[in-house]
């Protein structure tokens, strides 16, 4: 189906755009009362993720309400370990919790390389339902967590400031770490390929915990697996967003992907220099800007657009939108990009 708004895809591919496209990580959910109404009618987050019609409904809400240039399928990176046999619970106000962690050969034996059509079919169905409902209005982004980030949760058992168990494994049992990364990567490639077949127009790989590794460990335990994923997805553009991995930007320039996401700690000019002219950059407004006044949001957004320039940029935050953000402030950010992102393209 022909997209009515293909700005995001053209920007990702480095084609000329009339204005900068804009969307937000975590736009589907948390900040919207309409999302909370759907969520409160259910047992919790996981039921919403696993119910295709409802996942599609909350995926489309920000397109209708915030007027963004793309939808991102409502799901979670932790559906991958769940599909592999390592289940998680989503604890209110605490985040994910894994009752059983993966820390030994014996634990590894309980895992499988997941079949996306068997173990993750609810996500594929949600993509199909969303695509039909969007009817070509905007592109749909599919996603998965990067292998290192998924390993971090499976070994640690929950979110953490240090992920000391996961990082410790890289020193004490690197062989086991690589075995687990191999299984996660194989599952993720099959899963993302299935998302593309189901209708995803673009894929994003989230390496949320990239920044807690040393550069040497990142190059050994993270980059090669991300590189494999990028090589395996070639029908649609791929974005790699590795939070905190400023030390790897030059390495990312060699990845077989179209777009590199930047967090708000990364300097735009320096990042552009490191990744080179042949990649699109995405980001990188500090999510906390959206707590400030409308005037400040407008001023800082214009400044960001000028820094990136009119081409090869997808406007976004440098991380997911925070749950207590006023949706009106988000609309101000989106509208400023839409109005001013066209002016600097002229």
Question: Topology of this protein?
Answer:
Elements: H1 7-13, H2 33-40, H3 45-49, H4 52-65, E1 71-72, H5 79-84, E2 89-91, E3 95-97, H6 105-108, H7 116-119, H8 121-134, E4 140-145, H9 147-156, H10 164-172, H11 174-198, E5 202-207, H12 215-221, H13 223-232, E6 238-242, H14 249-252, E7 259-261, H15 268-275, E8 280-285, H16 294-308, E9 313-317, H17 327-343
Parallel strand pairs: 1-4, 4-5, 5-6, 6-7, 7-8, 8-9
Antiparallel strand pairs: 2-3
Helix pairs in contact: 4-8, 9-10, 9-11, 10-11, 11-13, 16-17
Structural write-up:
The chain has helices at residues 7-13, 33-40, 45-49, 52-65, 79-84, 105-108, 116-119, 121-134, 147-156, 164-172, 174-198, 215-221, 223-232, 249-252, 268-275, 294-308, 327-343; strands at residues 71-72, 89-91, 95-97, 140-145, 202-207, 238-242, 259-261, 280-285, 313-317. The mean pLDDT is 97. The protein is built from 17 helices and 9 strands. The protein is 48% helix and 11% strand. Helix 15 links the parallel strand 7 (259-261) and strand 8. The protein has one domain: TIM Barrel. Helix 9 crosses helix 10, helix 11 (174-198) packs parallel to helix 13 (223-232) and helix 16 (294-308) packs parallel to helix 17 (327-343).
